[in-house]
Amino acid sequence: MRRLRLGMVGGGQGAFIGGVHRIAARIDGQWDLVAGALSSDADRARASAADLGIAEDRAYTDFAEMAQAEAARADGIDAVAIVTPNHMHAGPAVAFLKAGIHVICDKPLAATPEQADQIAQAQKDSGKQFILTHNYTGYPLIRQAREMVARGDLGEIRVVQVEYAQDWLAEETSGKQADWRVDPARSGAGGCVGDIGTHAFNLASFVTGLRAQQLAADLQAFVPGRQVDDNVHVMLRFAGGARGMLWASQVAVGNENALRLRVHGTKGGIDWAQENPNVMTFTRFGEPKQILTRGGAGSSAAGTRVTRIPPGHPEGYLEGFATLYSEAAALIRHVDQGQALPEGHHVLGIEDGLQGMRFIAACIASSRGDGVWTPLG
Amino acid sequence: MRRLRLGMVGGGQGAFIGGVHRIAARIDGQWDLVAGALSSDADRARASAADLGIAEDRAYTDFAEMAQAEAARADGIDAVAIVTPNHMHAGPAVAFLKAGIHVICDKPLAATPEQADQIAQAQKDSGKQFILTHNYTGYPLIRQAREMVARGDLGEIRVVQVEYAQDWLAEETSGKQADWRVDPARSGAGGCVGDIGTHAFNLASFVTGLRAQQLAADLQAFVPGRQVDDNVHVMLRFAGGARGMLWASQVAVGNENALRLRVHGTKGGIDWAQENPNVMTFTRFGEPKQILTRGGAGSSAAGTRVTRIPPGHPEGYLEGFATLYSEAAALIRHVDQGQALPEGHHVLGIEDGLQGMRFIAACIASSRGDGVWTPLG
Amino acid sequence: MRRLRLGMVGGGQGAFIGGVHRIAARIDGQWDLVAGALSSDADRARASAADLGIAEDRAYTDFAEMAQAEAARADGIDAVAIVTPNHMHAGPAVAFLKAGIHVICDKPLAATPEQADQIAQAQKDSGKQFILTHNYTGYPLIRQAREMVARGDLGEIRVVQVEYAQDWLAEETSGKQADWRVDPARSGAGGCVGDIGTHAFNLASFVTGLRAQQLAADLQAFVPGRQVDDNVHVMLRFAGGARGMLWASQVAVGNENALRLRVHGTKGGIDWAQENPNVMTFTRFGEPKQILTRGGAGSSAAGTRVTRIPPGHPEGYLEGFATLYSEAAALIRHVDQGQALPEGHHVLGIEDGLQGMRFIAACIASSRGDGVWTPLG
Amino acid sequence: MRRLRLGMVGGGQGAFIGGVHRIAARIDGQWDLVAGALSSDADRARASAADLGIAEDRAYTDFAEMAQAEAARADGIDAVAIVTPNHMHAGPAVAFLKAGIHVICDKPLAATPEQADQIAQAQKDSGKQFILTHNYTGYPLIRQAREMVARGDLGEIRVVQVEYAQDWLAEETSGKQADWRVDPARSGAGGCVGDIGTHAFNLASFVTGLRAQQLAADLQAFVPGRQVDDNVHVMLRFAGGARGMLWASQVAVGNENALRLRVHGTKGGIDWAQENPNVMTFTRFGEPKQILTRGGAGSSAAGTRVTRIPPGHPEGYLEGFATLYSEAAALIRHVDQGQALPEGHHVLGIEDGLQGMRFIAACIASSRGDGVWTPLG
Fold first, then answer.
1. B315: nearest Cα among B297, B326, B325, B303
2. How confident is the model over D138-147, as a mean pLDDT?
3. Gfo/Idh/MocA-like oxidoreductase N-terminal domain location, by residue (chains A, B, C, D) (predicted)?
4. Is the pLDDT reported for residue D216 higher than 80?
């Protein structure tokens, strides 16, 4: 089985998430990185490509040129990974989709609703795949949690508590990672709510299978002079009657990357935290709490399918991310042969991206409306 | 130094919180229980008193009679503990205050605002002490947290996250403890919000010293047929600009008594959970997280003052409660001699009780108003 | 039911364990402290007694005088608690037993085998009760663990891992608590091994019901100039084939009072740590690990019998200790009426004390013999 | 920079550790797997190679043939990974070394001392690199722990506690992974002691930099009929006076892969557990315990050098293993150019392997000698 050929837009020297995508693409041996427009700076683009063993003639400085050139090659890329700041998603996404190349794109979908719509339209017109990397859905125990909810282990869901707390933006900061995230021109109108709030919202939706109908939000920008939110309080109402709370913060001193999800139903409850992702507690009402481990006793098929090594041998963030790349590969292999994605695979796409955009928009609208309950588009 | 003489209203055989108050009163050797109207059922009152070594002539069946009789005795009680359901606080509280006897009363203050006002008026008229047992304020690390916030270890407070999750009312239940809590005639209009939401709210206020100005609430009654809320979502706005979220639930399967408080400021953050109350984490921005232990390295004076045994020897719920009884004793001894309560002592009273009543009322009003931001009285 | 009358030897101002015994005796309302020889220093004895509300005529400075005087009173003490350093156990224990008064005594039994034998002989001659306060046996989950082992939940026991780590003697220290513990004339030949090693050994024996037959030990005195061991490594062989390891240390920097017991059998394993004593994990082979809580779902009768408050409301060190006082009271009440102690009660006595002395002696002998396997007396 | 070419011996379909090596080799993009003798079964060898994209002419069934053929190719492999059961290390290791090809080999070094010596001799004769994959040394916090000890953060080391507990062999089992591990002909005379005891021993040595001089061991085979040990108790004496305990077990029900290391010195103590490898606690004597995170505040250079992603984004077992492959690549690149390995890199080799063999031999000898203190070769 040949490896698929991957291109990348963004992710040059000094970037963070580009390197993550590359490791994720390597872990399961499904992809080779063969082309890139890694930076809009020509020197950096070239140097970055050389570091990565990309041939000189496939080290582009312009994504549009790259889309054309790769589409024209017999050995052109099967898919491109877009790992630029939010406002730079739509341009390359549309270009590659139009060129007939599948797109793997970091979240959130775009910086503005208009950009999001452009991507959606291009995807629809092209018939090519658009794959959104909400990477936390790749954790085995998150897959297991989803399966447990779906098969009724928790009964009817009542309460969803999700939070995503960081502290790295607690003070005025500068640097490649921070700058664009606090600049509305590049991040979009949402700051924290877009950057990590969307992850939290997506995770709650993914695990519970519930659609949020309304939210009431209170957004703050605590750091003086900050133009986007850095702390987000949201109350949620889901279809079917479940309720939730969502907290996202980039100023919560004492937190590194504390994404946590709790779901409580009539029959059971689960609790999972990303920083130690190989364990999840599960309580059946009236019974002792259980510690479920990735791949351990009591694992569900959905969880073990995406598990590489035995329990007690921790898998982490990169493995979860790698699962998205392996499932993207599976999707592309199958659709290229006119087949459906096998059961148990989960690939997030345009609709999930639009749902994230609606979440951001609703949070901002509700907060500006002094917390009025606001529908999600 | 003579022990103070304690009477009790409520707390007969089969009760829960009455037994807790009694142990709490014994632990530090400041009180002797010498009188009681332990039940309105005469037989049970007598039998309960006998169990506890209360003399027959001080085993009352009527609190009004008890107030009169004890006030008339040379060796009458110094204070009475009221440990009845919420709707039965005001009657005895007013009676004992009018009889010139200090009152120690379980929370919340009362079942209705009217009852609360009656107590407040009686306290004012009598000049006697009214002591409210928000027992979680008695934990040494909570005292330390308060001191740390007050002296600026956390900088300016930005975000307060407080939650109190239980699951014992996740299904329709019956029994002495459950029945009155889900009966609005006895618990008041608030269910979960009054029973444990007030604890969470009080704890957040106590530690941060911040006054909540507004809240937006979404209350649910998940168990079919339940007449009071059993799950409570609240967003908070504090004077000075801090924001908070409060979650209280009695249907969150997998939780026993999971009260947790997190406070994040410009310079630091703390995290404390009641079920393992002898540790608290503290992070100074940019430094490794510290695990502070009750009485351990780095303890504050406020924490060690109410600590009985060395770190590593866990104190629990009853010791925290006992601190309230010891501070009540200190208060009574000092005021009886015209002195002020020594520094470092904290006794909650009428104002804290009224604040809790305002919290309940605002939650209910906001929730009925579809989450409108509602001032706290 | 009248409260029993307690006397105390040792425990004057500045002492640690005496205060613990007094709180423990108060918690369940079974005892009144009415007499004491709290210090050999007359002034301190008097002042300490006054602090505690002991009548002047029962504030003794000499334990022998106290034994005589209390035995002669109609309202004399039912039992005496001996809370002096190790070398001061035998004198008062023998005196009170000879005077016909039950003895409650801190561990280890004595500083020397000779003293231990004197106590044993006096107990035998008197027919009075001798109760040894290995307080960690009073924790509800330890009772539950014992019951679980006894009823076969763990299958046949194979491996026992017990450790008790502290760091407060990591440097040369001085002070009332430290001084006598590192002075062989007062602590006995064992330092750490006697002070906390005996607790660890007792706990392992209590929970498993297994008798240690042989041990191989390596004792160290790490702090320069220290005359007794401060770190203890032991391998154990139990009757029936189980094996164990025991580590006790008072120089393990980073530990406050870290007593931990793990027991592994053919069918299951448990793990309990004293610093958070309200939880214990239990794994049935091939099933997810369970978190058992004190009094929570799946609690055994043995555990709930000694539990005062609901799960999630933590009980601690003092409550565990209090259970020993309540069971001592139960024992005395029953034997005084010619009855057997009710099922489920556990009172440790002379034989447990002698077993502890044999453990100390075997550790020292083995270590001096370069780790030779040494029988336990 | 070209990727290095990797071959593999063992690791065909159904194997465990071979797949781990392959992922580890891919993660950092330093290696391409291009040749293999993946199984001695010809069909399985071919099929396994095809799965992995290995060209047909480099899918060997015989390691000796592979060594010859690869040595003869201009594009021959730079190194071979040997991932066979213990008794099959020496044959291929000697063959590839003699053929002038670097060897990466799983632990323990060999099944017998004779085999170990053969490898050592072949390595010496060839001048080629022999790299032993004690993968737990690759964890960033283990690197940091080593650096902290080396620079004196813990003071003089006194006590080392290391344990490695599993339960997967608690019953008689069968299967590809279990079979050879309990067969002395394939595993060597040591069972658990060789399989995981060596990891624990190596980790303690790696972090502390201390050489174990003597040990006293008690080995058991609990499962009826088992011919090798499955539970290992060891006391250790290190050069310089530190002491240790080591517990390894494959029958400790309730443990998946519970490798834990604690080191206590005169000034500080650390505690690290492999199952959540992104945190380590560190206590300076007299100060609050700190939670150090991989790459977080207070990270050392040694730890951050081998860290790929920010703190709070967990890395796991595969990333730690990958660091060994990246450092092996660095070593090969440097020695091939006559340069020394850069500072901060750690590659374990023959001497570490021999030390592991001496550990196994000493444990067996001591245990057979009833626990006599036995020097380590």
1. B303
2. 98
3. 5-133
4. yes
Interface residue B245 vs chain A (CB under 8 A): yes
Q: Is D240 on the interface with B (CB under 8 A)?
A: no
Residue of D nearest to B287 (CA): D297
Encoding tokens for residue B71?
A: 């006030």
The strand pair at C102-105 and C130-132 is best described as parallel
Q: Give the CATH class of A140-309+353-368.
A: alpha beta
Q: Provide CB contacts within 8 A for C291, sequence distance 6+.
A: A281, A288, A289, A290, A291, C279, C280, C281
- Would an 8 Å CB–CB cutoff place A172 in contact with chain B? no
Pair of tokens at residue A198: 């969307």
Around C327, how many Cα atoms within 13 Å sit in the side-chain half-sphere?
27
Does this chain's domain B4-132 share its CATH topology with B140-308+353-368? no
Domain ranges of chain B: 4-132, 140-308+353-368
The pLDDT-based confidence of C16 (bands split at 50, 70, 90) is confident
Could you identify the residue written with the tokens 């513990």? C181
B300 and D CB contact within 8 Å: no
Largest CA distance in chain B: 64
Nearest CA to D31 out of D91, D69, D103, D79 is that of D79
Backbone angles phi, psi at C123, to 5 degrees: -65, -45
Which residue of chain C is at minimal alpha-carbon distance from A311?
C288
- Mean pLDDT of the region C371-375: 96
| Residue C296, strand partner residues | none
- In angstroms, rounded to a whole number, what is the distance separating the alpha carbons of residues D189 and D217? 15
CB–CB contacts below 8 A, B to D: 34
- Report CA B352 to chain centroid distance, whole Å: 10
Does C299 reach chain A within 8 Å, measured CB to CB? no
The type of residue at C288 is P
Closest residue, chain D, to B294 (C-alpha): D288
Q: Is A367 on the interface with B (CB under 8 A)?
A: no
A297:C281 CB<8 A: no
Q: Is the ipTM above a cut-off of 0.85?
A: yes
User: Is the CATH number 3.30.360.10 carried by domain D139-306+353-368?
Assistant: yes
Chains contacting A (3+ CB pairs below 8 angstroms) = B, C, D
Residues with Cβ within 8 Å of residue D47, at least 6 apart in sequence: D13
What was the pLDDT predicted at A213?
A: 97
SS (H, E, C) D25-93: HHHCCCEEEEEEECCCCHHHHHHHHHHCCCCHHHECCCHHHHHHHHHHCCCCCCEEEECCCHHHCHHHH
Q: What is the pLDDT of residue B335?
A: 87
pLDDT of C178 > 90? The answer is no
Please give the Cα distance from B26 to B325 (Å, whole number). 9
**C282 contacts in A (CB within 8 Å)?**
288
A interface test, pick of B253, B256, B272 with most A CB neighbours within 10 Å: B253
Tokens describing residue A176: 């490649």
The pLDDT of residue C176 is above 80? no
Yes or no, beta carbons of A291 and C286 under 8 Å apart: no
- What is the CATH superfamily name and number for domain C140-311+353-368? Dihydrodipicolinate Reductase; domain 2 (3.30.360.10)
Shortest Cα distance, chain C CAs vs residue D268, angstroms: 5
Nearest CA distance, D290 vs chain B (angstrom): 4
Candidate from A286, A287, A298 with C-beta closest to C287: A298
Q: How many angstroms separate the CA atoms of B318 and B19, rounded?
A: 10
- The fold for domain B140-308+353-368 equals Dihydrodipicolinate Reductase; domain 2 (3.30.360)
Has domain C4-132 been given CATH number 3.40.50.720? yes
Contact list in A for residue D20 (CB cut-off 8 A) is: 309
Pair type for strands A130-132 and A102-105: parallel
